[in-house]
Write a structure and sequence with these properties.
alpha+beta, 3-stranded antiparallel β-sheet, 2 helices, about 15% helix
Length: about 120
């Protein structure tokens, strides 16, 4: 975050809550007449939009009036940020970074051979 965002938050922001990643969410204390309030996030660490869980994303984008924290279903997985480009990135079986080997086809594939 930059100095301008910190100053704006200090002067005009009202703390709303914090997520599991340590990101802090704010809204304007007093919105101007005829305009909806501003909402923003102060990221914990590097600003990475994929660190915003769906509960807070809905609040930031005015889909929900209040953060949806604690309203998770049993079938929902915990939120994880995008791990592409990190050592935790997903590589499917057969990818060069996983040895370049994959299981043989199960018989539903027949390779083309020129006649």
């Amino acid at each position: 975050m930059n100095l301008g965002t910190r100053l704006y938050t200090w002067l005009r922001g009202e703390f709303v809550g914090e997520d599991t990643f340590g990101n802090r969410y704010y809204r304007e204390r007093r919105a101007l007449r005829g305009r909806r309030e501003r909402r923003w996030v102060m990221f914990n660490g590097a600003p990475e939009a994929s660190k915003v869980p769906p509960e807070w994303h809905a609040w930031l984008h005015f889909t929900a009036d209040a953060p949806l924290e604690g309203k998770r279903h049993a079938w929902q997985k915990p939120h994880r940020p995008n791990l592409s480009g990190t050592k935790f990135a997903y590589f499917p079986p057969g990818h060069d970074r996983r040895g370049g080997k994959r299981d043989k086809a199960t018989g539903d594939y027949e390779s083309w051979r020129p006649s």
